[in-house]
Design goal:
Low-confidence stretches: none
Number of domains: 1
Strand order of the largest sheet: 1-2
Number of strands: 4
Shape: elongated
Distance between the termini: 31 Å
Radius of gyration: 17 Å
Helix content: 10-25%
Oligomer: single chain
Largest sheet: 2 strands, antiparallel
Length: 113
């Protein structure tokens, strides 16, 4: 679990995160989508304004939880799952921290559009 304070209203947020730092980056660049830094957006908007470009943007809350997981991932449930503790669970939605989560969401969004 990752705990964070969001900048819009200083609310607290917790995310279930896979240990993506423990796996190698996939060989195909099409599998991996990095996370943009907060500084990237003002720079992109400035460049768009200087070049008279229209900007269309959106923000999808809990973005990865809407996309099917393209990797075959399982976990052993811990004590927090009470009667199901010790059972094996298959992950069916992309999780934060997976190297392929961004690409999974991009494919899912493209299919929906």
């Amino acid at each position: 679990m990752i705990f964070n304070v969001k900048f819009d209203g200083f609310c607290q947020k917790a995310r279930l995160v896979a240990g993506g730092q423990q796996i190698e980056t996939p060989a195909s660049d099409l599998m991996y989508t990095s996370v943009l830094s907060r500084e990237t957006f003002p720079i992109a908007f400035t460049l768009a304004a200087l070049n008279d470009l229209k900007v269309k943007a959106s923000d999808v809350q809990n973005v990865y939880l809407t996309a099917p997981c393209t990797d075959k991932i399982f976990t052993v449930l811990r004590i927090e799952f009470s009667m199901d503790a010790g059972k094996t669970a298959i992950i069916i939605r992309a999780l934060y921290g997976l190297k392929s989560a961004g690409a999974s969401f991009q494919r899912h969004l493209a299919d929906c559009m």
